[in-house]
């Protein structure tokens, strides 16, 4: 029985697929052999690969690759949820992003995925009371990826941030599972208040490019926010909102808008 449990624990279809894709990628483009070996094939699991990739992206003259890698390795070793969330994020990107054709792409190339994984390590540090170090991670993620997520924010699994440029998620924001958002989305406050002041995004929400959701308001599950909208009021579940300020313009159009990624408004306006 113990052997069976060990075997099942070592079975990781996401990582095994990444390994297979890495070998194929080297065959097709040998010039990437060094990058792919160091980022994927030299590691025994996804967590180690993520820690290495994070260290390469976030290191600077202020903190070395080795230190950042040790921080990330420690986080992944002590909090298995970080690795589980990363796997869910990879699958989410593969399923929802038409430009993603392999599991290896988010790990190597997609800054939205990489920024979220670094945020997750920063959030773990925040929960451990290591706030200055978590702020440092936030700063480097913002500098390296153009994504600014406060380490105290709570972000669920299965997150897809397409393109990811200029994403801002505030300190008291909560983002549920299976949420998709495009570039230039802001989940922000409305003033200088220092209490619970940021949006709560329920599961399955789709947020279009450039949308701003401001204040301590709830966006109901499986709703859609049209690109460029400014949302200042709560949104009921399974509705579509659009405009400045945003108003309800119709139903969500499908049961899982964040997975379908359908952003068209068909006669709602």
TrEMBL record:
Keyword match Nucleotide-binding: no
InterPro entries tied to this protein: Hexapep, Hexapep_transf_CS, LbH_SAT, Ser_AcTrfase_N, Ser_AcTrfase_N_sf, Ser_O-AcTrfase, Serine_acetyltransferase, Trimer_LpxA-like_sf
Gene3D superfamilies, A to Z: Hexapeptide repeat proteins, serine acetyltransferase, domain 1
Keyword field contains Signal: no
Pathway: Amino-acid biosynthesis; L-cysteine biosynthesis; L-cysteine from L-serine: step 1/2
CDD domains per UniProt: LbH_SAT
Protein name: Serine acetyltransferase
Organism: Litoreibacter roseus
